[in-house]
UniProtKB/TrEMBL annotation, chains A, B:
Tree of life domain: Bacteria
Keyword annotations from UniProtKB, A to Z: Membrane, Transmembrane, Transmembrane helix
Bilayer-crossing regions: 64-83, 104-129, 135-159, 171-192, 222-242, 263-282, 331-356, 377-399, 405-427, 448-466, 472-490
Short name of one Pfam family: AA_permease_2
Species per Swiss-Prot/TrEMBL record: Nocardioides jiangsuensis
Compartments where located: Membrane
Protein name: APC family permease
Bilayer topology: Multi-pass membrane protein
Length: 684, 684
């Protein structure tokens, strides 16, 4: 009889499903808002950054703004076209990390992962800072306290995610569609008023902008090109978040890849429309916008600079106030929706962080326990680390979007580049074996798109690096380097352990005998249970062991032992200094030394209690002892639990935690089981 | 064959002793300094407090100072005489707590324990504050930063004790004998100069003291009595620490009780001599001393008050400066020794806290693990709690001894009173059965002494309560109440658990069968070891269980399982959402449900690593799983450790910690083994 035949393999599980997590697949109309908030929200700050950069050369340079807008739109379309290829080729949801790892090797994959991790932190910092800046237009008390308000918001988001937000399609749909309605509605109304000739000027229209130092008078072509390059790379902030869909393909309805690709295209078109509309309206309304540190360059009609406390509202706020000058609810709706979408965008980072973490953990780049759902401790730590790093950035840069944006785009474009490069390799490899001409033609076309995408994103990355390295991108690169090193070190450790643990010939040798030792501290139910379990295991030798720290207690125990007629010999270890652990460890070691091929089984009766303070009152010695025994070779430690009544409390708490929603569940196509039933009929 | 005969009882231990802790018993000349620092050091602040109180009624009231000193000396002698009885009756070292518990019941014992715990905190706060105040006479930069310097000193002491000070007789002897030499030498030299008529006035002699508000002109008798009572109760600070010897009797050489009693008497006499000498010299040198907040009552010869920044040196510092006006090394020696003895006195609290904690833990009033030596975690927490509470007091009272002393003495006298009351009960009880007339006479005498002691300490307690309650004693009483409640709650919990765990008839029933489950995450050495150990235990059913979170990994494992021809059936649990813990818990539960009288043995292979960050990378899932399985009835959890090479690091660290000295070791008669050999020949 072959050994394989003995193996009984039963695949359990389907029936478990109903009792725990269920899944809903997202139709396009739900998937769009779930994945769009990050990408769309950048319309709230990308135009502002373009105008700020151009303002260096005075208002005249604003005429470049729509050209830069078009260029950003072109890059956006290219990236969208490229990622549509990714979505088809890698529908498993690994995203850029998977593409880079599979096609370019582990180092490229780890680089992408580092870039994405840094990106998550910056998404939180930039989105929240921008949201706070935007809200300042409606809530004046925020002005001057931006960093504080932003930090509190990050903490709030972290708390919400720690608690477990029960996400649903609606959770994302209302704010995202609301934001689209607000911006597109505002722009449409603005264009109508423009056509009818009633579009008012922006509140800042009467201001004059002085050129920044170095840009006075006619500037050199080099200086102009550099300025336009900086404006362009700031505008590229609009591209962040486009890649999100490629991580979420598994959550789409079938045909998954095609639906994801369509949604991606839709997302790109909406984002471009919004951005270009906002830029056009801003120009038509003669909006003036400078870096908040450069207010002395903003001149009032009286010829004096604006006062230092001048409250410069964001581009969207200024447009909304102008367009809706006769309908203030419209203004407040735009401001509110912009604030909400920005917070939601920050929330996507809290969603994506654990998802990426679990993928990295599975590949041994982060602690393994991150890979299993339900390890709340590791998961919570991830959320806390993300929040703390984001708050660090917010405080360090005083919640100024213009400064934070300098760090932002590097990471995104590093992963764009490596992903496109990986895709080219992917198609080339497949072309080598593919013979069907139709498929080959499709692959060639895909490869061409990815090659164009790589060219475009490579140029942008170089521009971003050149224009932003000293302005802050170096910090992002340093952070990426740090993440890279940590992940490589973890992987190296796991690899070393793996080698050390590889099975050798002598690993199948059985121990010759089992010497069981039941630790006794008192004669009570847990001890009796441990004795019973130990006896049921029928070891070669069985004895109870008691550490004598007090001769009166010892005498009492011996007497009771006899009275109860317990048929297990009791060994008393004398410990003159009331140590418990050392005598036991020494004793097990001596048993093992006398019988090097045997194994010592140490049975420890344990109380199971429910409340944290009860935990402090029990088992502490057992815990320490277990820790020590683990270092002794040839010993196995058996915990025999005895559930006290209060343990019910903890059991129920554990159950609750297990069923609690976790951030990112919707993006992974998971919802809790009681939602499944409601949704199944509706969605499928 | 009786069950009792089967029991094999071996008393191990004596041979262990040489490898771990040894003990040295203290001769009187070593015991005196070990236990004296707390009691003797109060001479550094008790006279100051007497003079401060009397100064309210002007310099004229200083004439009462030696009478108050004599009264304090009388109380001291009474207390010493009483405690000599305690030492004979309770040589086990339980001290006041034991006396109160045995004779007056648990509530009295817990009250005494609470009082002692509060006392330890105050000993640290008062001693360090006084030491800093004293040092300010020599190191001027301390003035104005007393609270900061004192807090840093407390932290330093805590750190030293956390690290483990290798204490020895010398550690205590040099500073204590140095302090005696310094104070008694100074006084002797001062009296010689007094006799020869060359004793100079103190630096403050030319100042005039204005009476405090309410004490101007001739004051009423009531006011005077109240003032004297306050001065007296402040002076009673000299009595703190006298009871220390009664906790340390076991550390004395034989005859333990007699040696301890002699040392106690010696200690009392030295303390009284010092205090009275200092008071006398201060009077003879026309020393002026007021509360540092009342400098406006201190008038210069010019008729103006001293400037607000006036640097008032402590009584001992002023005397030393005067007596050694022609020999400045003498002055610095006194200052240095006073500072050192005060720090040493604070250190005794760090010593006494764990000792008392272990006694309370043994009685179930504090977490049990405190009762065994070597639980460094609990022990360290104790030291940290003590340090933080002391720092809290120091900061709250700005390191002002005069304010802190208001809180101090209540606790001491509460325990004095309950202890004396307990002793009276003790003798009365013994007299009931004792028939030997000689012994009866001795007992009657002892009871008379304790009765007198009780009367005396009761009067002092009332005086202290009346004069100090509002001045701060209420804080100490509140703290005592809190400790009392906590300890009672802990005891109640242990009692409830004890009842719940009492063995009933059906507790000796054996499980009918053992179903063993070996958890497999991968096929490597730890898994093989777990399988081997499980097989060696010969369970009724043995199977390996693997959670399928990734079908590729599952397929690989199944293949390897067959290749290696492992003769244990492998069960695969399907987990669509990458959960590990839930499927295993559910599976064990289903086994148990199918066989309610059987037991499930879950074998978990564990890596043992050495560094904390490695610990983070391994076993986290195993740890969580164990936590969950403990809540499942009928399950025992078996850790099968596999020691990785790096585990050696941790093993060595553990060994080092186990051999490290712990605060209070000397007081418990313990020293480390390598000292034992050196000392045995010398001391015995």
């Amino acid at each position: 009889m072959g050994v394989g035949d003995v193996s009984k393999r039963i695949l359990l599980g389907r029936k478990l499903r109903s009792t725990q997590l269920g899944e809903t697949l997202l139709p396009k109309r739900v998937a769009l808002p779930v994945f769009a908030s990050d990408a769309l929200s950048s319309v709230a700050y990308a135009p502002d950054e373009i105008f700020i950069m151009l303002s260096f050369a005075g208002v005249a340079a604003y005429s470049w703004s729509w050209k830069i807008g078009l260029l950003v739109a072109l890059v956006m379309l290219t990236v969208v076209a490229s990622y549509r290829q990714n979505v088809h080729a890698y529908p498993s949801g690994g995203g850029d990390y998977e593409v880079a790892t599979v096609n370019l090797g582990q180092n490229a994959g780890v680089t992408v992962a580092s870039a994405l991790l840094v990106d998550y932190v910056l998404t939180v910092a930039v989105s929240i800072s921008s949201g706070v800046q935007n809200a300042a237009a409606a809530l004046t008390f925020i002005s001057g306290n931006e960093a504080l308000v932003a930090s509190v918001l990050v903490l709030l988001l972290a708390a919400l995610n720690l608690r477990g937000v029960r996400e649903s399609g609606t959770f994302f749909a209302i704010p995202t569609y609301g934001f689209m309605l607000a911006i597109l509605g505002m722009c449409a109304w603005g264009f109508l008023r423009l056509l009818s000739g009633t579009l008012p000027d922006a509140e800042s229209a009467e201001l004059r902008i002085i050129e920044a130092e170095g840009y006075e008078g006619t500037i050199t072509t080099v200086a102009l090109v550099f300025l336009l390059a900086r404006a362009f790379s700031s505008g590229c902030a609009a591209l962040t978040g486009v890649e999100a869909i490629s991580n979420g393909v598994p959550a789409f309805r079938k045909p998954k890849s095609r639906n994801a690709a369509t949604t991606l295209l839709l997302l790109g078109l909406i984002a471009i429309t919004m951005m270009l509309s906002v830029i056009t309206l801003a120009n038509r309304m003669s909006l003036r916008y400078v870096d908040p540190h450069d207010f002395e360059r903003l001149i009032l009609p009286s010829g004096e600079p604006v006062p230092p406390g001048y409250d410069q509202h964001t581009v969207i706020a200024q447009i909304a106030r102008g367009v809706f000058d006769n309908f203030s609810p419209g203004f407040y709706f735009v401001i509110a929706m912009t604030g909400i979408i920005l917070v939601l965008a920050a929330n996507t980072a809290f969603n994506g962080f654990p998802v990426l973490g679990s993928i990295l953990a599975k590949d041994g780049l982060l602690p393994r326990q991150l890979s299993s759902r339900g390890d709340r401790l590791a998961y919570s730590n991830g959320i806390l680390i993300l929040a703390l790093m984001a708050i660090g950035l917010i405080v360090a840069f005083d919640a100024e979007v213009t400064k934070l944006i300098q760090l932002y785009i590097v990471g995104v474009f590093v992963s764009f580049n490596l992903s496109q490069l990986g895709m080219i390799r992917h198609w080339t490899r497949h072309l080598r074996t593919e013979t069907d001409p139709a498929v080959r033609r499709r692959m060639m076309r895909s490869r061409a798109i990815n090659t164009f995408g790589l060219g475009m994103t490579a140029v942008v990355l170089v521009i971003v690096l050149v224009t932003k390295f000293l302005a802050g991108a170096w910090i992002a690169i340093l952070a990426m380097g740090t993440f890279f090193m940590i992940m490589k070190a973890i992987r190296r450790h796991y690899d070393n352990v793996g080698v050390e643990l590889t099975i050798e010939e002598d690993d199948q040798v059985l121990p010759t005998r089992v010497h069981a030792v039941v630790l006794v501290s008192k004669l009570h139910k847990p001890t009796m249970r441990a004795l019973a379990y130990a006896k049921a295991s029928r070891p070669n030798v069985l004895e109870a062991v008691f550490v004598d720290t007090d001769s009166a207690a010892t005498a009492r125990l011996l007497e009771e032992w006899d009275d109860r007629r317990i048929d297990v010999p009791l060994k008393v270890l004398y410990s003159p200094y009331r140590e418990i652990i050392k005598p036991i460890v020494d004793y097990t070691r001596s048993i093992r030394n006398a019988n090097p091929r045997g194994v010592v089984a140490v049975y420890i009766p344990e109380y199971v209690v429910g409340r944290w303070w009860e935990q402090l009152l029990h088992n502490q010695t057992a815990l320490r002892l277990k820790g020590r025994l683990l270092f002794t070779p040839g010993v196995m430690v058996i915990s025999v639990p005895y559930q006290l009544r209060s343990s019910e409390v903890a059991k129920q708490r554990e159950e609750r935690l297990l069923h609690q929603a976790q951030a990112g569940d919707v993006r992974r196509g998971r919802v809790l089981s009681d939602q499944v039933k409601d949704r199944t009929s509706e969605d499928r």
